[in-house]
Amino acid sequence: MSSADSSEVARLREAEKRVVRKIDRLLLPIMLVTYGLQYYDKSVLGTAAVYGILKDLDLTRTVNGVTYTTRYSTATAAFYYGYIVAVLPMGLLFARLPLAKTAAVCVVIWGLVCILTVVCHNYPGFVAQRVILGFVESAVSPAFVAVCALWWKPQEQAKRIGFFYSATGVFSMFSALINIGLGKTGGSHPWKSMYYFCGSLTIAWGFVIYFFMPDSPLKPGRYFTEEEKQILIKRFEENPWGNSQQKIKLYQILEAFLEIKSWIYMLMGAAIYICNGSVTAFGARIISGFGYSSLQSTALLVPGGFVTVVTIAFFSYFADKYKNIRTLLLPASCIPVVVGALVVWLAPWHPTVGPLIGYYLVASFGAPYVLLLSLAAANTAGATKKGVTSGFIFVGYNIGNIVASYLVFAQEKRIKYRSTWIAVIVCMVFASAASIILRYLYIAENKRRDNLAIGGNKAASPIEGGESAESAEKLAGEGHTDVPIIENVGRYQDKTDKELLEFRYTL
């Protein structure tokens, strides 16, 4: 390669880096706030539990002097009943409709449903409202996983998924501070002020998404120059696995259901989110058990959010920096959660420093979940299959949250909620073991495909990037002669990772 060619390659790479930075500046803040609002809308219930909603909506029962929170647990789980019903259809919906516009409409609807919480006056009505809220909010996670796969290449995705998912930590700090103020000034029913606020904020943000978020690298709108648009096309062609806008294909649905990896993803999602019951829905109640008031318990939720953000950023950084270590990073990210559960369970609760530190370590459970999402996104091809596979993880997410809602027993306060922490430890160990099993499956399949390539099967040769002939020829005809043409046009068809023998799984 001549020095002139080398200089041109370097220029194009630098131009692509600038485009990626622009994509980050445009999309990541929108995704961060949206995902944070989703977390806030459903986690408000945890704070409302110490600000009057239990009494107002008859969510507890007292028998022989012991207060049982089974109704509260059911109301918490009801959100995920709606979510689990809708998440697979939502994943398929986003394979056909414009991502940004459809997501914006869903966000506005869920904001309206959230505000309607204040009209609930009894337990049955509140449960019904929570089911509907979960149904409409189920759109966000499938949409954003599809957005990440569409705009960023596989090796770039873990950090970006980690960024928007860290909103759970950022907004747990934000919401705790806001709810403290609303709890002090919200009148005789302060929990209603919390729902008015978060619902109104969500509706307003839905319009921001509608007007400012582009739908696709092929339709980036007014934010990119003509040169940058060509780079977006080039990146899109180099990342065919991310194309989510295709017709729904039944055989891809069947393939996803028949693959053992899909079921492992689902079980891992469920295991990881068993932790959510202790950190989100019952967090304020558990901390109050250390001897703090309602106001203090809400304030002490803030450091847990900080731990969530830091651990997600830490593990996402290494997942993107080094190839083929995600299945090893995931078990490593489970260690702080296990240590935290052991500390809360076994350390003395007076003084309270020990159990508080343990509680904050448990809040790091977001990191293994982010690594799981990035693994599935990078290792699935085919628009319909990608949507279904993501749906499997989100079904697991819901199963974990539903089970978690019933794993904090008020009557176990005197024994430090022992069942809760045992469940967390067992589930983290399972998720770690499942990650190692996935690594074995990925390695075995990659070796099989390598052997096929060595044996003369050209279709099994791994690809290194490039573009479809059709797209490249079109660009060349428009004067963009710096775009290379490759012969393997088949890689740009909507095929699954199973069909595309040149596909290699990320470890």
Describe the structure.
By secondary structure, this protein is mainly α. The chain folds into two domains: 14-245, Growth Hormone, Chain: A; 247-455, Growth Hormone, Chain: A. Helices cover 70% and strands 1% of the residues. It is built from 22 helices and two strands. The chain has helices at 3-48, 53-56, 70-93, 99-115, 123-137, 140-151, 154-165, 167-185, 190-212, 226-238, 250-258, 260-272, 276-281, 283-288, 294-299, 302-321, 326-346, 353-362, 366-378, 383-404, 418-454, 469-477, and strands at 61-63, 66-68. Strands 1-2 form a two-stranded antiparallel sheet. Strand 1 (61-63) and strand 2 (66-68) form a beta hairpin. Helix 1 packs parallel to helix 8 (167-185), helix 4 (99-115) packs antiparallel against helix 6 (140-151) and helix 8 (167-185) packs across helix 9. It is globular, with a radius of gyration of 24 Å. Residues 27-447 form the Major facilitator superfamily (MFS) profile domain. It holds the Pfam family MFS_1.
Question: Briefly, what is this?
Answer:
Its main location: membrane. With 507 residues, this protein is an all-alpha fold.
List the helices and strands and how they pair.
Layout: H1 3-48, H2 53-56, E1 61-63, E2 66-68, H3 70-93, H4 99-115, H5 123-137, H6 140-151, H7 154-165, H8 167-185, H9 190-212, H10 226-238, H11 250-258, H12 260-272, H13 276-281, H14 283-288, H15 294-299, H16 302-321, H17 326-346, H18 353-362, H19 366-378, H20 383-404, H21 418-454, H22 469-477
Antiparallel strand pairs: 1-2
